[in-house]
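Project channel, design review

CF: Before we commit to the Oligosphaera ethanolica constructs, I'd like one complete example in the thread so the newer folks can see what an input/output pair looks like. Taking Sugar phosphate isomerase/epimerase.
RD: sounds good, go ahead.
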Amino acid sequence: MKTTLITALLVAMFAVHAAKPTVSLDAAPFTTHSLQQVLQTTRDLGLSAMVAHDQLRVSPDDQAALLTPALDSAQRQAVKAALKTAGVTIAAGQFPAPADAQGWADLAQFAGDLGILRIISTPTATAIATAAAACAARKITLVLPCTTLPAAATGLDPLAAAVAALPTGVGICLDLVACRQAGLDPAIVLATLGRRVVVIRLNDADLASGKGLPLASTDDSSVQRLFQIMRLQNWSGLLSITHDQPDYSAIRQSVLFANLCLKTPADKIAALRAPIMTTNIADTWARLDTQTPGHWPKPKLVDTSMYRNAITGDNAVAMASSPGFNDRESVAKAFDQDAKTKYCTPSPTPWLQLQFTQAPPAPVAAYAITSANDSPSRDPRQWQLLASSDGEEWTTIDSQKDVAWFGRHEKALFVLKKPAAGPFFRLLIEANSGDKSFQIAELELFIPAAATTATP
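CF: and here is what came back for Sugar phosphate isomerase/epimerase:
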């Protein structure tokens, strides 16, 4: 009997310890995008939950159809179908507070129809009970941003008292940016409010601007302390990740960092830094939890032993549509066979061109791109590789889209379906990862390693 009881207690303890937050994409920066685009981004990030906003367009063709209770039955069914197809749920929706009780009832019914589990809003103090009742009737949690409570301006103790006085079932959203602007430490707020906090909004932005908390910061540990408290409390609410801009690469790195923190023991989190600058990709991947949302397949080790670079240093001339910021970041640096240098330009979508002045021994059969040393938002995400015999008429020999880079100095290999002789080759960047600038460390054009005869 005693052994059975101990076993049961251990199982219960493990179950509590195993509880993890739901990691979601906050759609706040995607207000000019359609629901379909945000769903695709959510899936690209390896996530299955999102936080929606009332400015999100439900159709790319209808600018007026926003995610609000004004949607008719057919539009709601279309949204539900899109969510089901994508395998994504709306874990929370952030909406303006309705003006009256009927408005709250309509909003709760709308949220219930779409399977939205939480409504984040800011009802007046006198309307909180009405709003909470409307949400509870649809089994939805009403969530109040903690810094919108008047008590937040007077300190942590008054805030805790105000939260304790809220109706049972009303949750709190802890927004890291808002907490910082209110002079509150997010970790201490979570430690104080405990499980009344049901949503944590993590904004990866510039600390100096006051608009966010940089996850890779070496001089601030606010985010790390917050994750420590989350782990110690076995917090299992909704972790909403966003950015000031629709920067896919930055948000992706935030998801990776959250994954690392959720995997790491609480006493080790303080030493963590985001993998945004990692050059040891395999080591970073090994520390991720394969069961945590936001996980990516194991990075493939690039084997180029069957190829050799067709560029020898004196057999080709490089040019670009946009010059580098300076001589140290000129287009020539993309072809110098040194991953520590880079081509970096103020244009987000330039093209890079190489003309062989001496024909390589064989047609180009593959190519590789290596990410640069910093700023993942400058990485290429979509492009075409073109070939030409005269530099005037171009043929697409390869195209890539939605390419995600795991770390810095990462090499990705792309094999052509059919070798191309050139002698002109152009890498046409169609989209980067969200920055106003673009960069790569290397572009290599490969021929078979055994090739010995010159191309006719």
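RD: helpful, thanks. The longest helix spans residues 2-18.
CF: The mean pLDDT is 84.
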